Amino acid sequence: MTCFIYARTLLASVLLSGxxxxxxxxxxxxxxxxxxxxxxxxxxxxxxxxxxxxxTQEIWAxxxxxxxxxxxxxxxxxxxxxxxxxxxxxxSDGNSNNSLGAQARLSYVLFDFGQRDAEQWQAxxxxxxxxxxxxxxxxxxxxxxxxxxxxxxxxxxxxxxxxQTLLATTKSVSSAEARYKVxxxxxxxVLQAKAAHAQARLTQVQANSQLATSRGQLAFAMGLKPTxxxxxxxxxxxxxxxxxxxxxxxxxxIQAVANRSEIKAAQASVVAAEKAILxxxxxxxxxxxxxxxxxxxxxxxxxxxxxxxxxxxxxxFDLGGGKQARVRQSEAQKNAxxxxxxxxxxxxxxxxxxxxxxxxxxxxxxxxxxxxxxxxDKAAKVAIGRYDAGVGTMLExxxxxxxxxxSHQQWVAARYDWLVARTQLAYALGQKSLPTTEFTxxxxxxxx
Length: 448
Hints:
This protein is an alpha+beta fold. It has a single domain, classed as Outer membrane efflux proteins (OEP), CATH 1.20.1600. The chain is built from ten helices and six strands, in the order ααααββααβααββααβ. A four-stranded antiparallel sheet has the order 1-2-4-5, with no helix packed on it. A hairpin with a 2-residue loop joins β4 and β5. α1 packs parallel to α5. The longest helix has 67 residues. The radius of gyration is 35 Å and the shape is elongated. It starts with a helix and ends in a 7-residue tail after the last strand.
């Protein structure tokens, strides 16, 4: 089933080098995804989420409903066959009378001015729309799992950065106390260093809280109890620049509208509305049916057979105007579907526009964050060296460490914001992957 394969590859291939290779197998709504004990990969997170998240289970059930609706529409093309049987026993004035009877009746609509055709075409269009709705749900859920997965990694990176800051402030406290003991420092230096250390501890506590929140969001997206979520495998390597430039934006908007399953579902809904109009119009026209029946009656040893064949013409009259109202109702529903299609096109163009420029901004941000981190690291080393040499002040050291801590946090955030921006752009364009994507799941430290 292409939708399930699409789910496995849609956004994971944005993050996994070489993409994913999944065989074309029939999707099983009761699939049992395996949850690893630790180091949950992105591919495994998506697979488990698509099996367990209630949204996918609901949309697949809705698809099954529409599949059966098509079967019901096709059933009207077959003859109607019914068989009846009866057995009676009566007694009057000491006399018994037993009788058995059987009757079979066959009827078939010969001509109905295309009503059955219109109903079947409508059901087929609605089934097509339901299939694209499955694609939409799968793509959206895959994107949400990817973003939640990256949010966990981002929170973990923020914790590492906070730990490094905590170590640095611990050393500053020790250095300030040592200088104070030998008379080259001041009590103010010690107090300032301890205040910075306390602030670093607060930042670490906040980072731990954010990690718990992010893990809960990932578990929710996967349809998993938060306490059962294993550790996840971090990301290694950052992908290169985007393969798009500002002059490509017009073609990207066209591509987004052409690729997104929301548009295809909306188009199928318009077709279904058109067929509903034909069905409503046909309901105002005559139908021609043929019927045949045969029967056998046995009573007190006497057998009697019967049979009949007939042709029926049914001419409807719209005395109350209900049938014309149904036609007008169907026409209004078609106009509503056309408006919904137009709205979807505008929404998707807007999403693609914003995702493209957000990705460009994220790309520039990660470069600036790297430059800021490099400069802040050098400045902190210089400030510490000056303080240890007795020519600098503790305030210089703390300011430099604070700037380094901020730069490190911004650098971590920029890396994962960049990955989220790429994922969002791939989703907005309806792509399974972006060009020149080269990073894989692996264990990696967030230290610069």
